[in-house]
Amino acid sequence: MRDGPLRHWTDRSNAVLERYLPEKRLFLRSENSTRFVRLRPLSQAMILGGTTLLVVWSIFASSIVFMEAIGSTDLREQTRREQIYLEHRLTELAAERDRSAAEAHAAHERYAEAMDRVASMQGALLSSEQRLAELETGVETLQGSLRERIRERDTARSQLAEVEREDTNEELIRTTARLGEVEQTLDFVMRALRDTADEREAVLSLADSARQQAEHLALEYRLMEDRNNRIFSQLEQAVEVSVMPLERMFREAGIEPDQLLNQVRAGYQDERTASLMPVSVSTMGTMDTDSDEARTNAVLSALEEINLYRIAAERTPFALPVRAAVRQTSGFGMRRHPITGRNAMHEGIDWAGPQGTAIHATGEGTVTHAGWRGGYGNMVIVRHEFGIETYYAHLHTINVSEGQRVSRGDRIGGMGTTGRSTGVHLHYEIRANGRPINPMTYIRAAQNVF
Questions:
Q1: In terms of CB atoms within 10 Å, which end of the chain has fewer, N or C?
Q2: CA nearest neighbour of 366 among 318, 336, 332, 404
Q3: 319-446 is classed in which CATH architecture?
Q4: How do residues 198-246 score in pLDDT, each as one tens digit?
Q5: In this predicted model, what pLDDT tens digit does every residue of 100-132 receive, in sequence order?
Q6: Angle between the N-to-C axes of helices 292-314 and 169-252, in degrees from 0 to 180, rounded to the nearest 10
């Protein structure tokens, strides 16, 4: 019962497809007999459909691989552009920091000179005020003497009038002589008063001029402080923006930044440039935390921290070992071994590509092994700082030797299939103190920095 409808449907399908796919027979001959296989229209349609699906799937898979290759190339180009921009930005910050430090030093010298001038003017003003007080005391004394002489003059005039009335010539002569002496004394006192008044006006004018100049210098110093504050604020913000991605990169790679900086600082004191040395404090031996010197030292300390991060980054394997268009075939972790067929830990990453594809060092270090090593085949081991090593296995060619110092980007060999390998590829490992680490941890941590 069940075969009846199926056979009926098959016959109807063959009848419909007969117009487009006529029945064919495939003859198979041997020495003793001849056999044939009959291909009905439905069978031909199924074979044709399966072939079409296989071709479409192959085209789709090839497109995905091609798009991944293009995407990885664009990512590397973007990473290279961001690295160039960051280096250019750091150069600009260093130049701006040098200019600001020079301007701050010049402003400090101008301020010191202005303060010296203000101190001299204040000394002159104090001397003028003392002289003015002395003159005022002298004026009061002269005024008292003047009043006494005026009284004597009035007395002499009264006596002269009385003498004139009494018509006594001798007394008149004495009174006239005394009156002349009084008038001479009065003239001297009046001249002294005029000289004293003129000198007081000159002293007051000098004091007012000194006061105005001191106010002008104080205003100029406040404007200079405001300008320096804006410059330092911009520098502090730029340095903070530059330090954050570097610190985040090492944290994401599993390296503690504080411990890293202490280790780099202890091992590379000779690489500390003179331009990053802190400025000296005042002769008092103290420094205000809000002063220009303190803020300058804070910026210099941050720039030195960036420099230490730069040294550490050059010696840490953050880069990709292959720059050509390759595809990743195996990741880090448990997988089915392609040769033994058993589940095993894969302690690195595999990239497949053409034989001889250039393999580059991912960080600065020293080559500790360059030759054959069991199932790894031709392998290069580079020892970096901080207890980190990188392995480059299954190489076709080796371009370095043991003991050689390499930098990031130096070619160390060509991709191959030596050792226990099923095809041309690179096996890449990162080990920290002998323990394997997923290389993508380092690569992803640096993809937005370099």
A1: N
A2: 404
A3: Distorted Sandwich (2.70)
A4: 777 877 787 777 778 778 877 877 777 777 777 777 777 776 766 777 7
A5: 777 777 777 877 787 777 777 777 777 777 777
A6: 20
